[in-house]
Amino acid sequence: MEKAKRLEEDARALVEKMTIEEVASQLKYDAEAVKRLGIPEYNWWNEALHGVARAGTATVFPQAIGLAAMFDEKLLCEIAGVISTEARAKYNAQSAEDDRDIYKGLTMWSPNINIFRDPRWGRGHETYGEDPYLTSRLGVSFIKGLQGTENYPDCDTLKAAACAKHYAVHSGPEGERHHFDAKASAKDMEETYLPAFEAAVKEGKVESVMGAYNRTNGEPCCGSTTLIRDILRGKWGFKGHFVSDCWAVRDFHENHKITNTPAESAAMALNAGCDLNCGNTYLCILAALKEKRVKEEDLREACVRLMKTRMKLGILPRTDEEETAKTNAYAGIGYLENDTDEHRALALKAAQKSAVLLKNNGVLPLKEGEYPVIGVIGPNADSIPALEGNYNGTASLYVTNLEGIRKNTESRVLYSVGSHLFKDKISNLAKYNDDRMSEAVTVTKNSDLVILCLGLDSTLEGEEGDTGNMFASGDKRNLLLTEAQQRLARSVVDTAKENGKKVIAVINSGSALDLSYLDENADAVLQCWYSGEEGGQALADLLFGRANPSGKLPLTFYKEGNLPEFTDYSMKNRTYRYYKGDVLYPFGYGLSYTEYETSFEVEKAAGFKVDEPLIADYEKMQSPAIYVNVTIRNRGIMDGEEVILIFTDKESAEKKASSVNTKYADRIDPENQPIKSLCAFKRAFVKAGDKTTVKIPVSVYSLTTVLEDGTRVFLPGEYSLLIGNEKHTVLLK
Predict the structure, then answer these.
(1) Is 62 helix (H, G, I), strand (E, B) or coil?
(2) Which residues, in sequence order, are CB contacts of 175 under 8 Å at separation 6+?
(3) CA pair distance 60, 69, nearest whole angstrom
């Protein structure tokens, strides 16, 4: 508390010396210098989704959705730590050259912890998938790694400042985000859309939160008193700074039509608690002050929060020399700590662990010499964008799928692009469509095995305005491969079947696709996401058995045509927790080259008892109610890592709903409970022929029920846990 008090005093003392014009100049993302006070200019806008982005050379890790498929909190924290090391290395070098431009600061606008509720959403690959629990755990891990709080748990010193975005209830459609009102029930807010943000604040101690473009239940998110003042700062006790999404405040008057002028919009945002404006609307904040729409003390309060962040980062001086020295703890990170061999090795490790084997009829892993000629076909075979995803940096070296295969086998490798990613032909001068199809067929005929590299890249799925997919503003219109790739897949598969050749499908994409045709007709299907700078090497390691696939799906793969309206934000019939139809591949699915056998026992946590006041105490709710001891035996001949997933199932929800006392009975709808919900996960390494036992805690929070009015309660009674294909019931009183 004393450290926080001194920091507060230092920030206030600095802001008190500023004129109100100088204060206003600090509330925009491109903050101006105040030379008389020793404050250099600072650009708050930087990105670090899966590596330092948009600022030159940096290690490019797999896209966030791929990192989620690892189901590995520890490794994600390590990756985030590397990202912040590179951010520091670049910042220290660039600021020494007085380069303080955009994408060169230490305030990283990551992670994206929105829920990937609909696979058509173009920005879903920036997230950690469709599950609130998984997103919460991975979000907290990323934040801690990025901020360096394992070394400074008081958060008074930051290696970099993380930002939880986009608060709240944002997941498309991209083309409507500037005027869209995302309407969500109190239950869906508490159960699905808000938990990851609450965890980011209370457990991750995230330094900043970014508001979304859309409205939520009528209020624009960057000017929402409910979201910012009542929930974020009030209920959750958030102490950091709040930043608008870029030009989102302008949307108040131009698109949402909530205000009439820029000054009114600026006032609405500031009064709700938005400290920093990414955009230019806060250029009107002094006009709003003159019109008495805002108070001077509120401008100064926002500035204090921003100065505190810069002081924590060590980029503004403290009054105490000892404190200044401490907050400069990372000033010695030199440029040579960027883009190192060690960081590249970590990117390779992440790419190996993130890939998900969806189908294998025994063709994988490949044995050297078994297939003298290997054909590699497809628009993503030799594509760097298929490795990068969006919000990416620039690697000093990329290994594409084709390059990875070619340099890791003695077989002859034939190559054809086969088709454009989405256009009907490669050459604009070609008279006929599918102008590389005959080459692809020829390669297939002359190969002993075909590796077909299909999917998407960030020119097709991504943020509005950042993609070439202007027909859907970055979203997908459906779950199918593009028509050009569908034709290519059918031609290659048909030719392979006619000639007795095997086909392995490799998919690079950031979202779920309907892969029914490939599931039925290919010999193996491997989902590689946007796999980062070492993606091709990781692919080769997996194909040739140097690595064992261990990734699991962090989202459901549906069949085309079975989804609710994109604009419907109700969770009914969405994600594995509520979807009632047949799916192609379920959440948590993923095959291995080895066979695991699991057994388990469940024990209550020592001293656990139902204590109703516990429900209002977030920290106590994180304490274990149950421990699951899982023994994993590797029955195969290859070392591997298994991901254990533990769910609560629908039966427990129904039992809780039907057995509650009268004070809750009228607030529970048994038909509006999750079918099952992830409540714990653990990755474990097991040598071939060996076994290991892991102890996995299940928290009280994971066992709570959210009532229709949004109240979260713990209902004593029977809880059924699903572990693999087995069910265990435990009575908790």
Answers:
(1) coil
(2) 464, 472, 473, 475
(3) 17
My answer on whether omega of the bond before 365 falls inside 30° of 0, hence cis, is: yes
Strand partners, 24: none
Helix axis angle for 437-445 and 483-498, nearest 10°, is 30
Find tokens 């097991």 and name the residue.
686
For 184-252, give the DSSP string.
Answer: --HHHIIIIISHHHHHHHHTT--SEEEE-SSEETTEEGGG-IIIIIIIIIIIS---SEEE--TTTTTHH
- The answer to whether residues 496 and 444 touch, using CB atoms and an 8 Å cutoff, is yes
Tokens of 562: 């079975």
For 127-145, b/e burial (b = at least 16 CB within 10 A) is bbbbbbbbbbbbbbbbbbb
Closest CA to 227 of 280, 289, 172, 165: 165
Question: Which amino acid would we find at residue 75?
Answer: L
Domains of the chain with bracketed CATH:
2-332 (3.20.20.300), 341-551 (3.40.50.1700), 596-732 (2.60.40.10)
Asked if the model's pLDDT at residue 153 lies above 80, the reply is no
Q: Would you call the peptide bond into 111 cis, given omega within 30 degrees of 0 as the criterion?
A: yes
Per the listing, tokens 């809750």 go with 664
d(CA 146, CA 336): 19
Q: How far apart are CA 504 and CA 517, in angstroms?
A: 13
Catalytic residue among 131, 245, 275, 434: 245
Cα separation of 429 and 426, whole Å? 9
How far is residue 139's CA from residue 134's CA, in Å, rounded to a whole number? 8
Residue 660, pLDDT above cutoff 60: no
Residue listed under structure tokens 């695991």: 596
pLDDT score of 31 more than 80: yes
- Alpha-carbon distance of 671 to 654, in angstroms, equals 8
pLDDT at 713: 87
Q: Per residue, what are the HEC states of 104-170?
A: CCCEECCCECCCCCCCCCCCHHHCCCCCHHHHHHHHHHHHHHHHCCCCCCCCCCCCCECEEEEECCC
Q: Of 710, 571, 717, whose CA–CA distance to 658 is shortest?
A: 717
Q: Which of 489, 534, 527, 490 is nearest to 511 (CA)?
A: 527
CB within 8 Å of 578: residues ≥ 6 apart = 571, 572, 674, 675
The per-residue pLDDT for 260 is 98
Q: Which two tokens stand for residue 323?
A: 């404190």
Helix axes 535-543, 341-354, angle to 10 degrees: 50
What mean pLDDT is predicted for residues 473-485? 96
φ, ψ dihedrals at 465, nearest 5°:
90, -20
Quote the radius of gyration of the chain (alpha carbons, Å): 26
Q: What is the pTM for the complete model shown?
A: 0.97
Query: Cα–Cα distance between 579 and 25 in angstroms, integer?
Result: 49
245 assigned to active site: yes
Q: Coil, strand, or helix at residue 342?
A: helix
- E strand residue ranges, 514-556: 524-527
Between CA 364 and CA 387 the distance in angstroms is 22
Distance CA 138, CA 141 (A): 5
Q: Cβ(686)–Cβ(634) under 8 Å?
A: yes
